[in-house]
Design a protein that fits this description.
One of its GO terms (biological process) is glutamyl-tRNA aminoacylation. The protein is of the alpha/beta class and about 300 residues long. It folds into two domains: about 210 residues, Rossmann fold, CATH 3.40.50; about 70 residues, no CATH class. Helices cover about 35% and strands about 15% of the residues. It has nine helices and 14 strands. A hairpin with a 2-residue loop joins strand 10 and strand 11. It is globular and about 60 Å long. The two termini are about 20 Å apart. The N terminus is likely disordered. The structure holds zinc ion. Zinc ion binds next to loops. Zinc ion (ZN) binds next to loops.
Length: about 300
């Protein structure tokens, strides 16, 4: 069994602290609340359970685990189930089963979704108000024209409209020596979705900050996202996220050269966690780890 630690946010909310309960590290209890675990170095694997993970997703988990070993830190598993309509328990179960079969040890971060949502919403106060604006645009209207809601100064109503962060067209951010014009990549980026769900970029920055993630390994498709996260983190003083070490690996393709994607059909079968599949994951992970200079034990 992996060396598993349960981490969750207390419903009482202890300031902005992440409250932790450890199963096997003997954390102290104080005033009925659990102690924060301070770890200096950490990686994380943050899949969304919206389909069965594929070989590429699992290779990413494996590389993160190897990197955690290399830096003498730990790996956090954060299952991103904020969008409950898209997430299914069988997909989460498959994540846990695959990591077990791969022998990957991790710290589980599993906050209560409702209190987490309120917490992420309250953290929006860290962003200067003048940089945020409410957006009324529907998905279909955005296909036809760009959002111009900023000029209208609408009141933000969670569940009715979205909340966007204005990104100046001249604003740039650099990650791994690559420079991105953030507005070209994201427009004015949504931080809170119209359906009252924290948007991926916002949840990601706050989670990485609170969990003290120091090393981030992602596919190259998320390079611009990393640049955006560094910008948001700098804006809110999330120093560890702004200064984290970012690694981006190539994306795996199938035999026809097509990018792998999670199978989402309701009748889809999970990949069989047999020796062939597990060894394919490790071989793929090994190639990508070599590319990034991460030691394979
Ligand atoms: Zn709009």
């Amino acid at each position: 069994m992996p060396d598993e630690i349960i981490v969750y946010q207390s419903k009482k909310m202890c300031g902005n602290e992440i409250i932790c309960q450890t199963k096997n590290r003997g954390a102290e209890q104080r005033d009925g609340l659990f102690h924060r675990i301070a770890l200096k170095v950490r990686t994380r694997f943050a899949p969304t359970p919206s389909g069965y993970l594929h070989r590429g997703n699992l290779a990413n988990a494996q590389i993160n685990a190897w990197l955690a070993q290399q830096i003498h830190g730990d790996l956090v598993l954060r299952i991103d189930a904020d969008d409950r309509a898209r997430c299914q328990p069988q997909y989460s179960d498959f994540i846990v089963a695959s990591l077990r079969e791969l022998g990957i040890a991790y710290t589980l971060y599993a906050p209560d979704i409702e209190s987490r949502k309120e917490y992420l919403k309250s953290e929006l106060k860290l962003i200067p108000r003048q940089n945020l604006f409410a957006c009324d645009c529907s998905r279909s209207s955005l296909i036809e024209q760009e959002c111009s809601c900023r000029e209208q100064s609408l009141a933000w109503q969670p569940g009715v409209n979205a909340l966007r962060l204005h990104l100046d067209p001249d604003l740039t951010a650099t990650v791994n020596g690559e420079l991105f014009r953030l507005h070209d990549e994201f427009g004015d980026v949504v931080l809170w979705r119209r359906d009252d769900i924290p948007a991926y970029h916002w949840a990601n920055v706050i989670d990485d900050r609170d969990l003290g993630i120091s090393h981030i390994v992602r596919g190259r498709d998320l390079l611009a996202s990393s640049a955006l996260h560094i910008h948001i983190a700098s804006m809110i003083g999330a120093v560890t996220v702004a200064k984290a070490q970012y690694h981006h690996h190539s994306l795996l393709v199938d035999s026809t050269g097509k990018k792998l994607s999670k199978s989402q059909q309701s009748n889809a079968q999970p990949p069989t966690l047999d020796l062939t599949f597990l060894s394919d994951v490790r071989t793929s992970a090994q190639e990508l780890a070599d590319e990034l200079g991460i030691a394979v034990p």
